[in-house]
Design a protein that fits this description.
Elements: E1 2-12, H1 15-26, E2 37-42, E3 45-51, E4 72-78, H2 81-90, E5 97-101, E6 105-111, E7 117-123
Parallel strand pairs: 1-3, 4-7
Antiparallel strand pairs: 1-4, 2-3, 5-6, 6-7
Protein backbone atom coordinates (compact mmCIF):
# COMPACT_ATOMS: atom_id res chain seq x y z
CA UNK A 1 0.00 0.00 0.00
CA UNK A 2 1.24 3.47 -0.85
CA UNK A 3 1.43 5.52 2.34
CA UNK A 4 2.96 8.87 1.38
CA UNK A 5 3.63 11.06 -1.61
CA UNK A 6 7.37 11.24 -1.23
CA UNK A 7 9.17 13.31 -3.80
CA UNK A 8 9.28 14.89 -7.21
CA UNK A 9 12.52 14.39 -9.10
CA UNK A 10 13.53 16.80 -11.82
CA UNK A 11 16.32 15.94 -14.24
CA UNK A 12 18.43 19.09 -14.56
CA UNK A 13 21.12 20.21 -17.00
CA UNK A 14 22.98 22.53 -14.62
CA UNK A 15 22.84 21.67 -10.92
CA UNK A 16 24.15 25.01 -9.64
CA UNK A 17 21.70 27.00 -11.78
CA UNK A 18 18.80 24.79 -10.69
CA UNK A 19 19.72 24.95 -6.99
CA UNK A 20 19.92 28.74 -7.19
CA UNK A 21 16.52 28.90 -8.92
CA UNK A 22 14.76 26.68 -6.37
CA UNK A 23 16.51 28.40 -3.47
CA UNK A 24 15.04 31.71 -4.64
CA UNK A 25 11.64 30.22 -5.45
CA UNK A 26 11.28 28.37 -2.15
CA UNK A 27 13.10 31.05 -0.16
CA UNK A 28 15.22 28.48 1.63
CA UNK A 29 18.57 26.77 1.32
CA UNK A 30 18.69 23.20 0.06
CA UNK A 31 18.62 20.46 2.67
CA UNK A 32 21.32 18.65 0.72
CA UNK A 33 23.38 19.55 -2.32
CA UNK A 34 26.00 17.83 -4.44
CA UNK A 35 26.98 17.86 -8.11
CA UNK A 36 24.74 14.81 -8.71
CA UNK A 37 21.77 15.30 -6.40
CA UNK A 38 20.29 18.17 -4.43
CA UNK A 39 17.05 18.33 -2.49
CA UNK A 40 14.66 20.69 -0.79
CA UNK A 41 12.12 19.55 1.78
CA UNK A 42 8.78 21.24 1.24
CA UNK A 43 6.59 20.04 4.07
CA UNK A 44 6.83 16.26 3.96
CA UNK A 45 7.62 16.15 0.25
CA UNK A 46 11.07 16.43 -1.32
CA UNK A 47 11.90 18.25 -4.50
CA UNK A 48 14.91 16.37 -5.80
CA UNK A 49 17.22 17.69 -8.50
CA UNK A 50 19.16 14.99 -10.34
CA UNK A 51 21.97 15.88 -12.74
CA UNK A 52 21.15 14.54 -16.20
CA UNK A 53 24.59 13.01 -16.74
CA UNK A 54 25.18 11.40 -13.36
CA UNK A 55 23.25 8.15 -13.17
CA UNK A 56 25.41 5.81 -11.15
CA UNK A 57 25.26 3.03 -13.77
CA UNK A 58 26.43 4.22 -17.22
CA UNK A 59 24.51 1.33 -18.85
CA UNK A 60 21.24 2.17 -17.11
CA UNK A 61 18.47 3.02 -19.58
CA UNK A 62 17.28 5.76 -17.23
CA UNK A 63 20.51 7.61 -18.02
CA UNK A 64 19.01 8.53 -21.38
CA UNK A 65 16.45 10.67 -19.59
CA UNK A 66 16.76 14.29 -20.59
CA UNK A 67 15.53 17.43 -18.96
CA UNK A 68 12.12 18.80 -19.80
CA UNK A 69 8.88 16.87 -20.13
CA UNK A 70 10.40 13.40 -19.90
CA UNK A 71 12.81 14.60 -17.21
CA UNK A 72 10.11 14.63 -14.54
CA UNK A 73 9.26 11.75 -12.28
CA UNK A 74 7.60 11.46 -8.92
CA UNK A 75 8.03 9.05 -6.08
CA UNK A 76 5.60 7.30 -3.81
CA UNK A 77 6.69 5.61 -0.61
CA UNK A 78 5.56 2.07 0.19
CA UNK A 79 6.02 0.01 3.34
CA UNK A 80 6.94 -3.27 1.61
CA UNK A 81 8.40 -3.07 -1.89
CA UNK A 82 8.31 -6.85 -2.42
CA UNK A 83 4.65 -7.04 -1.44
CA UNK A 84 3.93 -4.11 -3.72
CA UNK A 85 5.71 -5.85 -6.62
CA UNK A 86 3.41 -8.86 -6.09
CA UNK A 87 0.37 -6.56 -6.11
CA UNK A 88 1.52 -4.89 -9.34
CA UNK A 89 1.95 -8.31 -10.95
CA UNK A 90 -1.57 -9.34 -9.93
CA UNK A 91 -2.86 -6.10 -11.50
CA UNK A 92 -0.82 -6.79 -14.68
CA UNK A 93 1.20 -3.58 -14.23
CA UNK A 94 4.72 -3.96 -15.57
CA UNK A 95 7.84 -2.79 -13.80
CA UNK A 96 10.12 -0.87 -16.18
CA UNK A 97 13.23 -1.15 -14.02
CA UNK A 98 14.30 -2.41 -10.64
CA UNK A 99 14.15 -3.11 -7.87
CA UNK A 100 17.41 -1.39 -7.11
CA UNK A 101 18.88 0.32 -4.09
CA UNK A 102 19.09 4.10 -4.44
CA UNK A 103 19.99 6.84 -2.00
CA UNK A 104 16.32 7.00 -1.02
CA UNK A 105 15.78 3.27 -0.59
CA UNK A 106 14.78 0.13 -2.50
CA UNK A 107 13.13 1.48 -5.64
CA UNK A 108 11.21 0.25 -8.66
CA UNK A 109 10.24 2.28 -11.71
CA UNK A 110 6.98 2.21 -13.64
CA UNK A 111 6.09 4.12 -16.78
CA UNK A 112 2.63 5.64 -17.11
CA UNK A 113 0.77 5.65 -20.46
CA UNK A 114 2.29 9.04 -21.36
CA UNK A 115 5.85 7.95 -20.65
CA UNK A 116 6.31 9.58 -17.24
CA UNK A 117 8.36 7.64 -14.73
CA UNK A 118 6.84 6.80 -11.37
CA UNK A 119 9.22 5.65 -8.68
CA UNK A 120 7.92 3.44 -5.88
CA UNK A 121 10.33 3.36 -2.99
CA UNK A 122 10.61 1.53 0.31
CA UNK A 123 12.63 4.18 2.16
CA UNK A 124 15.79 3.38 4.06
CA UNK A 125 14.17 5.27 6.92
CA UNK A 126 10.40 5.49 7.36
CA UNK A 127 9.20 8.67 5.60
Amino acid sequence: MIHTFGYVMLIVQDMQRSVEFYQKLLQKKPDFTSPRWSQFAVGKVLIGLHAVDSWSDPNDHLRSFGSGQKGLSFGLYVDDINGFIEELSSQKISIAHGPRMTGLGNTIYLVDPDGYYIQLCQPNVKA
